[in-house]
Amino acid sequence: MARADADERRFDTPKGTRRAPSFRGSGDSDRFGRFTEWVARGMGTPGFLLGLSVFAIGWMVWNTFAPVEWRFDSIAIGFTALTLVLSLQASYAAPLILLAQNRQDDRDRVQIEQDRQRAERNLADTEYLAREVVALRLAMRDLASKEFIRAELRAIIEELDRRDDERDEEDAEHASR
């Protein structure tokens, strides 16, 4: 009932309609996905394999050496119940592992896309910086060097000294007349 009230308050849902329950994108789906990953990680451990082996050996030992009235699986028919239990475990393990792999593939796809975008940004940044370095080198080539400025200043000083000398000579000539 609360879900129907929530749908009625939403502006993107027409009044009087109920959305079908969806496991895609809901918290339940994520919880189930995390559960499948937990199961898949657990089944791949040596501890799980050792525990399963101990379980199967214990089952066979019990049903072989326990008193007949306590046995629940017969060695005469090849431990059929144990075979069924292990088949049931395997029939659930395979889809859970596949679901966990699909989730990992989705995460890998997202990570690859993020890495690709990051690489594109890095390439763009690197190209921008390379262009800026080239522009700075060109600008530096157009700038005057210290030696050039010193030579120009010496030439100006010599020109000013020459003019002063000429003025002094002119003043001396005017004074002598």
TrEMBL record:
Please state what the protein is called.
DUF1003 domain-containing protein
PANTHER family this protein is in?
INTEGRAL MEMBRANE PROTEIN-RELATED, MEMBRANE PROTEIN
Keyword check for rRNA-binding, yes or no. Answer: no
Q: What is the lineage of its organism?
A: Bacteria, Bacillati, Actinomycetota, Actinomycetes, Micrococcales
* Top-level division of the source organism's lineage: Bacteria
What are the boundaries of the signal sequence?
A: none
Q: Where is this region: Disordered?
A: 1-28
- InterPro entries per UniProt: DUF1003 (IPR010406)
Organism source for this protein?
Agromyces badenianii
Q: Where are the transmembrane segments?
A: 38-62, 74-99
Stretches with biased composition (Basic and acidic residues):
1-15
Q: Indicate the segments annotated as coiled coil, or none if absent.
A: 102-129
Q: Which UniProt keywords apply?
A: Coiled coil, Membrane, Transmembrane, Transmembrane helix
